[in-house]
Amino acid sequence: MSYPGYPPTGYPPFPGYPPAGQESSFPPSGQYPYPSGFPPMGGGAYPQVPSGSYPGAGGYPAPGGYPAPGGYPGAPQPGGAPSYPGVPPGHGFGVPPGGAGFSGYPQPPSQSYGGGPAQVPLPGGFPGGQMPSQYPGGQPTYPSQPTTMIQGTQGTIRPAANFDAMRDAEILRKAMKGFGTDEQAIVDVVANRSNDQRQKIKAAFKTSYGKDLIKDLKSELSGNMEELILALFMPPTYYDAWSLRKAMQGAGTQERVLIEILCTRTNQEIQEIVRCYQSEFGRDLEKDIRSDTSGHFERLLVSMCQGNRDENQSVNHQMAQEDAQRLYQAGEGRLGTDESCFNMILATRSFPQLRATMEAYSRMANRDLLSSVSREFSGYVESGLKTILQCALNRPAFFAERLYYAMKGAGTDDSTLVRIVVTRSEIDLVQIKQMFTQMYQKTLGTMIAGDTSGDYRRLLLAIVGQ
Q1: Which terminal CB of the chain, N or C, has fewer other CB atoms within 10 Å?
Q2: What's the pLDDT tens digit per position in 9-48?
Q3: How far apart are CA 404 and CA 444, in angstroms?
Q4: Which residues pair with 118 in a beta bridge?
């Protein structure tokens, strides 16, 4: 079945990714300049920072290889329309695997791709294009992109102008000196400096006072505020590696953390995480994954940690048709499921290629690929495969959904809230905020304010830019 108005040739390749001339500046294995050791989960000392270990002095590299603004997949190019027109259906994480289908997400507006306006089909093949509403107040709309998104403003945190590491170190020292702690002064500095600048503040603090800034902060803070401050002062690649280690350390495994990191990062980011994991914790990430997971989920994560996805941004429409046919015959078109076929295609194809495959699949199967994955898989491998497809459609929407379910209902998953807000703060948190509002009819700041309190809430809202 074909959908009226469907783009006959698929989406155009999106320009600007990866950014021209951006190569990894990551040091060779074994020479990672991060502090040795690992902060104990129970709140022990943060690893020592070597003297002079800040960018420009041979220490911390600039934040872990994240693409420059405007060059991230899903990021709009300055002055142009956003390059990810699709919005993923799905309930994502935060609900039990194998739950309800992936209907109810906002749909993109009509867009022109060199011809007339084209409509992306609604998932699931609902008659008349109608989808059951799963949102209070009815089905959310997908408005045209706000000007701020089109201008390419992505991160809520940008480097401070007229930055003076010594002056900031002095402000933090005064804030922690004497009786009580001036948390507002700490918030003002930390929330308005880039990660690169925070590394320089750490080094300047040690140079000026002969003390470790992180140890001093830990002695003054506790709970969620402490976790948030520590996350902000870890270099991005180290924080991802640390989060993966923490997810697999001790009894039990936090599978959703493994999915969130390994299925959403770029090749370069993953390769740097693998090297950091080895140099900092003396462990092989792939071996840890193998020992902590099993079956098809294990195979998917092992594929992901190779950091070897095709990143050619041009789309082969013949391959998309063939892949769609193969996926159909591996799932809906047979009794049982050929899991290895899904793993191979979803782990190796570029995101633009996967979008074209999803379009071809919808036309051919009268069902969207996300729905088919829900029918054919369950548990964590289902979540992992759907995360890849959601990121191919609209990465900010995936993180918006993840944040929503971290706060929805009784209790808050503070580790997920902290991790996403911190790791996306210099990449695409502006887009995530906009997608959050479109998907849930409330702002991210409003939900954070209602789920958190005290200095922790104040710092989160300062990072989010509320």
Answers
A1: N
A2: 444 443 444 444 444 444 444 444 444 444 444 444 444 4
A3: 8
A4: 111
